[in-house]
Amino acid sequence: MTPPTRIPFPVVDEISRHCLQEEEPETVHIEVHLPGRLDQSRLRKAFLEALHRHPRILMREAPGGWYRRRYEWELTEEPDVAVVSFPEPGRNALRDARTRALTEAPPLSLSPPIRLEVVEGAGPVEGSEATDLVGQHPPAWGRGAVTYAAPPRGRDQPPLSRTQNTTVLFLTINHTALDGPACLRIIATTAEIYGGKDNAPASAPTRAQDPPAPPDNTPSNWTRPARVAPGAPEKSPGNGLLVTELPLPHRPKGSPYTVNDQLMVTTALTIAHWNREHGEAPRPLRITMPVDDRPRDTTMPIGNGTRLVEVPFAPAELPTDEDDMPEFLRRTADRTRALKSLPRPQLGHGASLLTAPVTPVAWRATLTRGLRRAAAPWTSTTLLSNIGRVPYPLDFGEEAGRAHAVWFSAPARMPRGLTVTTASTAGRLHLALRWSRALLSHGDGAHLRDLFEHYLHATEVAP
Questions:
Q1: Angle at the Cα of 414 (from 408 to 416), degrees rounded to 5?
Q2: Model confidence pLDDT, tens digit, residues 323-340
Q3: Please, are residues 148 and 138 in contact by the beta-carbon 8 Å criterion?
Q4: For the segment 236-250, what is each residue's pLDDT rounded down to a tens digit?
Q5: 180 is in which domain, residue-wise?
Q6: Is residue 1 part of a domain?
Q7: 30 neighbors 178 (Cβ within 8 angstroms)
Q8: DSSP alpha helices (H): ranges in 196-288?
Q9: Structural domain tally of the chain?
């Protein structure tokens, strides 16, 4: 019998494996909302076939002693467990599935390290695990120079999933093994097999080929950044989650900035406003932005394939009124394009040195955890992961239909304690705020959502 193929953990996987914590599982959650129903047996077969078409996902952590030099993935021909489940429908089924996605990571010891739950007849889309969140007062923009009085739109959920003939696909991913874009590719393949329709990705938008040089006033990444100010932390461990749907921000034709730049600006202004409200002195903000250069077709490498770029903002450059916004958006666009174009390993050069297999992996794990604690004050303020326009139709055929909403969320462990994840589907922006309960509460999440919506609308000013 041929022994299973083994693959050494890449750098990202090993660093994540070193730093796992039971109280805050490293999960990525994806939820895909469909207007119709799916046949259970047919979906199971389609999902299994999709796994076989992307065999790199059929893997588990190979056992080994503390003295081994590497963690290794062991590829399997078939799943070790039943990957697809259909929880009992009910009033709280959607909320409960979200809770499981945050609290129960698929084990690395069983192939594959993902779980697909199919929630049928989900009812209305709620804003969070809690259903009684209320918004706060409309925020004052900038440093008190302008008050924007438009009514918040994200507080009332849109009329999605109002009928009982709907389906929500919940994919929970162990982030040590895989990332969201790779698993979205798996869902797209599943849709193509199930519905028999072409789910090829749309072509990527064309961008300027020559990235600008980083602006001279770009703040240094060596500066100790601001932290998200504590709100009303909860006693229970783990993460909280709020999802909402917003209109895509308007962008004048020919604008030098992208929607991603508008989201980056919105995130910076939201956190700066939150910190001012909580009495924090102004400090530079640093926002981590995952960048994914992989192809979106069936040749897409499956695993953790994004690299991390850190975008800094000095307190003095944040706009104080509407007139300053166009220039700030343009400067942000130049900065992000320049930083994305720089060649850099996924987690930087230091991570490559930490994972060099010259000492037992257990020793490197101890060193990595110690360095992570020591470097906590210099960790970026937050993470903004913008999937962008979902590139696949995610069309499951006539009965189930095409996805009209797709949400992602990324882990929100301390010291960041807050992540912002966005995707756009059917011309709408799908926002997920995820936070560590050691930092924020559900009420804090609702207020941050209102601030985000306000500042997102503020980026729509014409240049």
A1: 65
A2: 899 999 999 999 999 999
A3: yes
A4: 889 999 999 999 999
A5: 9-458
A6: no
A7: no
A8: 259-277
A9: 1
